[in-house]
Amino acid sequence: MTVILVPAHVPAFRTLESTPARALTFATDLRAVTVGVKDVQGWAEGIAAPAWQGDTAAAHDHAATRFARRLDNAEAALDRAVTAADRFEARLTILSSLRLRLEEERRAVNGDATTLRADVTASGSAATEAEIAVLQRRGERLMTRATTVIAEIEEWVRRYDDTEADFIAALAGVDTLVEGRLAAEDPGRVDVGPLVERFDSLRGDPERLNAWWLSLTRAQRAALSTEIPHRVGNANGIPARDRDEANRAALTSDLDYWAQRDGDSQLSGEERSAAENAAHIQEQIDEYRAELDPLTGRELLHLLVYAPGSHSGDGAVAIAFGDPDKADHVSVNVPGLTSETSSTDGNLDKTHDLHRAALDEDNGSVSSIYWLDYDAPSGNPIKPWEIPDLGGVALTVKADAGGERFADFIDGLRGSDEGDRAHLTAIGHSYGSTAVGHGLQDGAEVDDAILIGSPGQPESTAASLTDADVWVGSKDHDPVSLLGSGDRGGVGALGHDPAADDFGGVRFETGDGSLRIEDLLGNHTSYFEDESLDNMAHVVADNDHLVTEQPHRGEDGGGHLTLSELLAASTGASVLDGVGTAGEWLWEHSVLGGIL
Amino acid sequence: MAVTLDVPFEVLRTAKIKWDEAADELDGNWRRLHKSSIAGFSAEVTAAVEAFREPWVDEIKVAGERAQAHSDEIVLFGQRVWLADADQAERVRALLPWAHSDAGIAGQP
Amino acid sequence: MVVLAGCSAGGDTEDRSRFEALEQEALDVVDGVLHDIAGETDMAFEAGTRATSICGESYAPRGVKLRVFARFAAPAEMATDDAMAATGEALTGDGWELDPQPRERIVLATREDLEIRFDFAGVVQVHITAGCIETSDGVAREIGDRPTKDLDWADG
Question: Most buried in the list A218, A328, A341, A453, measured by CB within 10 Å?
Answer without folding.
Answer: A453
